[in-house]
Every structure is written in C-alpha cells, then in structure tokens.
C-alpha cells in the first residue's frame, strides 16, 4: 500500500474520515502513526541491546540488570577465582579502590576479596589502608559499589576473624545502617555480612562493639544490633559467659523487651531463654554449692537481685511462660 502524505491527509473529506473509504469497512488511519510506533519499537529494542545479557546485578530478581550496571557482576565467594598476577594486583589495589571510576572500584573490591581468600597474609599488612577505602565504598550512593563493598566485608570477616577487631567500628556502623535501609537487595547483603561477622569474630571481642548500638536512637539499628548480640552469646561457653558477666547480658536483654520493633523484642526473648539455661546449668554443675539456699540460687532470685522490679518482672514473665509452654508441649 502506498503511504499517504500529511498533505494528502488534509484533502480527505470529513465523511471519509468518519465512515472510512476502504473496501473492508475499516477506518482510514494516518500511516504516520505507524511510523511513530515503529520508531518507538526500534528505540526500545536499541535500549534493550545496550543493557546486554541479564546478569545478577543490583537487586533485580531473577538475575535482572539495571541500565548502566552491565559491566559489574556480583560473584559469590565460592565462585571467585585467584588473581592472575598477585604482585601487580597488590600494587594497583589501593589506586583502584580510590578511583573515581565506579567500575574500577568494583573490580578492585573483588580483587580484595580474591586476595583475602587466596593470599590473605599478603593483604594483612595493608589492611589498615584498605579498610577506610572499603568504608568509603559502603557510603557510595551507587548500589553496585555499595553491594560489592558489603560482600567484601563478609569475605574479610571470614578471612581475618579476630584480626579485624581494631578496625571493625567504621565497618560495623555502615553494615548496621545498610541492613536497616529500604533497598531490599542491599539490606539482604548487609544482613549476610553481619551473620558472617557473628560467625567468624570471637563473641568476647564482638559483644562490647555491639553494645553501644543496642542503645542507638535509630530503632532499626537497635534491632539489627540486638539480633547480632543474640547470635553471638550462644557461641560463648559457660565459663566465658560468667567471665563476661551474665548479669550484664541479662540487663542488656531486659532493656530490649520493651523496644519499639518486634525484631529487638524477639531477640531479647531468645537471649533471655539462653541465659536462663546457662545460669541453671552452671549452678547445677557446681557441687560445692549444694548447701546454698535453693531459693537464693534460683533464677527468679538472681533476676530480682540484678534488675529493677519492673525489668525483673518482665524477664521472669518471658522465661516462665516459655518454660510452661515447654512443659505443656511435652
């Protein structure tokens, strides 16, 4: 069919436009509209081709991508390969981490991960220079940089365990912040990094670092810190809990029972049940205290002696109800 030019369109009578002039009774439609539609389709196709093959990027589900992020891929730790040239990688590492090109920063962060896994002794000497640059990447507004930095933290915690403790504070505050934000894929990555932290770093060293954040103004940060605290305490043995101070742990847990967010309250309940179990086991295992008054040695008396009346009442309510539930369930 020949195209109808805009000039020819103006000569079509009003009746022809309304009634249509084609043999099959369809209305005549300006072909220029089809041109625009075809142009839109071509533009969309062109835009799609720029994005490239979907990879696991920027929080999109089913491994989708964001435009402009197709050059960076999130690689799980177990899928990372060793660097090609360790010496060259090490020489360019700090420059890459401090680069203004975000793709270069992501590549450098992944190299930190590789070096931490395959050559951790080499990085240990420059870790004090690497950590501030990782913190800078954690603060980066670009999601790809931020998430790659979070994944780097998880690998560093696993590789260096307690060696990281003196440099932990700036990393910890950023991870608590990122795990509390609304961007889901960043939040989930930060939570995994915090789990790695509580898994690989000694609880005796970590608990004092977490305690200030349990009193933070931000309720979400308090909740994440409480969950980390709750995960760390069970890794302590009975002797370590007594060395740390079971009364301090109970006071910390009691302070979260009335917190604003349910995550904090649930973590506090879980921790109190753990502490009650540890307390009763420790007293049961001490044969030298057989003559001690059972009432004085009881969990109830201990809580009342270490907490305010209201806090003791709240703690005993939680632990008593849980015990009664176990008895009824059995």
What secondary-structure arrangement, pairings included, does this model have?
Layout: H1 6-11, H2 14-19, H3 31-51, H4 86-97, H5 102-118, H6 120-124, H7 127-138, H8 143-160, H9 168-178, H10 184-200, H11 203-214, H12 219-232, H13 238-244, H14 246-255, H15 262-284, H16 299-306, H17 309-329
Helix pairs in contact: 4-5, 5-8, 7-8, 7-9, 8-10, 9-10, 10-12, 11-12, 12-15, 14-15, 15-17, 16-17
Write up what this structure looks like:
Residues 1-25 have a biased composition (Polar residues). It is a single chain. This protein has 330 residues and is mostly helical. It has 3 domains: 6-47, no CATH class; 54-191, Leucine-rich Repeat Variant (Alpha Horseshoe), CATH 1.25.10.10; 235-330. It is 67% helix and 0% strand. The protein starts with 5 loop residues before the first helix and ends with a helix. The model is unreliable at 1-70 (pLDDT under 50).
